[in-house]
Amino acid sequence: MVEIEGLLAAAHGARPPLRPWKRLMDVAVAAISSLFALPAVLVAALLVAVVDRHFPFYTDVRVGIGGRPFRCFKIRTMDADPRILEDYLAERLAERETYRKTRKLTFDPRITRVGAFLRKSSIDEFPQLWNVLHGEMSLVGPRPLAPAEFLERGALGLPLTLVRPGLTGLWQTRGRSDLTIRRRIALDNFYAEHCSPALDIGVLLRTPLAVLRGKGAR
User: Phi, psi at residue 132, to the nearest 5°?
Assistant: First the structure.
């Protein structure tokens, strides 16, 4: 296993290739999409505040291009109290192991009433259009990983530092959380190593259908 310090040094030393076509497409599509997404974001934020009684927005640290951390924007879909998950996993050893490996649960007790719908529809990720416009994310790319998730991948995480994380991506359109962690890593790395305009357009065209189907969304 690669040492944490060495892995981060390798990540920060990576030299991502220049892709002006990708940045141009990101800015153009994200700017137009933001106009349509804004009403949905405002309504979702109001529902979270009124129904779930939570502040509707939050940010979380993710690993970006070149291994640089950034703040990823989302609409809150979970209760912030860590004891809810701790108590739930304390009596469920199998699910605790699943969560340790994938950071996902079939039933997550932290997800709120409004949050379940927002996750199913992917509206909770609409604020990430700001990350795209700001240059921290791309419309298409690997899923943005938390530092702990990135480090758990070891050397397999290094290809992800060559591209910006995506609002959508290969595994988000091929089963989402129903995929095994090995399959997700393979798809993330395939994209990082074979990024192209045709691949991006194909993912963008498949994304609306994947969202409507809701397969693997949780």
Answer: -65, -50
| Triad 194, 195, 198: Cα angle to 5° | 105
pLDDT band at residue 48 using 50, 70 and 90 as cut-offs: very high
Q: Is 134 helix (H, G, I), strand (E, B) or coil?
A: helix
Cα angle value 132/30/36 (rounded, 5°)? 130
Give the integer Cα–Cα distance in Å for 157 and 28: 29
DSSP label at 143?
P
Domain spans of the chain, in order of start: 4-77+112-210
Cα separation values, 105 from 101, 177, 193, Å: 10, 9, 29
- Ranked by mean pLDDT, which of 102-111, 148-157, 184-193 comes out on top? 184-193
CA distances from residue 175 to 142, 162, 163 in whole angstroms, order as listed: 14, 24, 22
Per-residue pLDDT reduced to its tens digit, 113-138: 999 999 988 999 999 999 999 999 99
| Among 30-34, 117-121, 170-174, the least confident range | 170-174
Cα 126 to Cα 62: distance, rounded to the nearest angstrom: 16
Do 56 and 76 form a contact (C-beta atoms < 8 A)?
Answer: yes
HSE at residue 94, side-chain half, CA atoms within 13 A, is 2
